[in-house]
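Thread title: Can someone regenerate the structure for this chain?

I was given the following input by a collaborator and told the matching structure tokens would be attached. They weren't. Posting the sequence so someone can regenerate them.
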Amino acid sequence: MSDKDRSVLIDASSSKLGRGEAHLTSAYVAAACLRNVTEEVESAINSSAYNKIVELTGAPLVIINERGIIETCNAALEETYGYESKELIGRNVKALMLPEVAAYHDGYLSTYLETGVKKVLDQHRRVYSVTKNQRIILTELFVHEMVTPQLNKRNFYGFLRDLTQQLSLHQAFSLSDAITDLSPVPIIAIDTKGTILKFSAASAKLFEYEANGENGVVGRKNVSILMRPKDAADHDQHLARAKAKGFVGSARKVVGVSRTGRLISLELTISPVMHGTSVMSYVGFLRDMTDSDKLESDRQLGREIAAYSKQPIIVIDHKGIIETINRHAVNVFGYSSDRQMVGKNVAMLMPQDTGSLHDSFLKTYFRTRSKHAIDSIRTVQAVNRRGELMTIDIGVRELNIPGTDPKFLAFIHSVSEHVARQEALWFNDALLAISPLSFVLADQTGRIITASDSCCQLFGYGRTELVNNNVKMLMPPSVAALHDTYLANYIHSGVKKIIDMDVRFTAMRRGTIPFDILVELKDLIGKDGQRFFVAIFKEYGSVGGAMKSIHELGAAQLV
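Best answer:
Regenerated them for you:
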């Protein structure tokens, strides 16, 4: 600022005061004006640098104030969450959270501002967040507090990293392990540095390497070990040219090298695994050109594997039309032939509310490439031929086959029976809890399988203390010593001496406390032919009719 400008500021400020006051305070006014102008210039410079730093930050970044209101977000966050910055600035950061987390966030902020106790600040944590289109993504979050005392201002900087692709890739590989290992087509996946991520059984056979284990190549070796030295030296350049010239996705002839040094003539097709506009990894599909008929043979064998796989499989085209369905999938949905399903929209297997939207889901996916269901395993409701709802686990992968429109491969597992079994187990536990009968269930060796709550209370044990222990722990030593013999003789002869009778005997409560009790024994045969025994304990006077004690029967009779 020039002296002339300063004098103008001084004169302008002095003109608002009386002449005497102006004379006395002009120095102070000048200093104040100079300070304010300087702070404004510094603020503008700092703000410009600050905005540049925010925009150049590669990781998604959101900056909120102490009330949780978003003040700034960068382009990386916009891309990850699908918002424009103007849609977020001024809104509460809860817009990026799951509802069950958002409901408590204001309270978390208030508690921290009151106590100053750091529970989440300056720590890396994994959380779930929500995009604009309500897609839930796994995120790594790091929050740092920034306080500006001069402005009495407090901000929280949230740095995020989308882990969904990392998780999806892991799930995709896990989901495809069985089918790729059955496939006769060698499949190899590598990261952007060439490290082998997946090495199918067919690849292991072709190149004579182990996939996993101490000598395995997965995660340990670079794909260059499968190349001739002159090709390996140029491999990084090959990847760069593949991206630049479009070799990715097209088939080309290459020469591979086995562990023993055998040269292999190959046809290679490479498909990139993308995250946004970035390549995360590559998947290579190989064809051994030694036999010119091998590819068609492989395709036929692949179809046979799909047809006879115990895993229900459905392939649909980009419009949702079923192209292929194996017999196990036909059976799962209650149809008698694939002809009843092939050529029809896969929405036929969905509840009405979901099926009516499926075509629009596909169109949205091809427009946005945002993966809601792709490369993940979900539990959903489906509909069988009779119109009955059924619960299934489904994993979906997109198939990008050169020269064809995209297709989708669905692996299906019916979980309705599993759910029913879980409900039955829950119901069984409920019965054990509320049953007024004191009983234990044991196998033919005397091992306790379960016991009712009433029985546990009667003998003074918890159920976990009884289960898997021998029922002899509830008997006095004189009876327990002969119990194995009783069981063996009964199982051998089938002669009932105390089965289906009320017998009085002395039992042992926890702490070796004897007490008299009535017991009724039942012999049960399971569906698989396994024998079980149920002992029902009763109070004296609760039964009528004939009643004998073990002492009255005599050990000789029982044996």
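Confidence is low (pLDDT under 50) at residues 1-49, 541-559.
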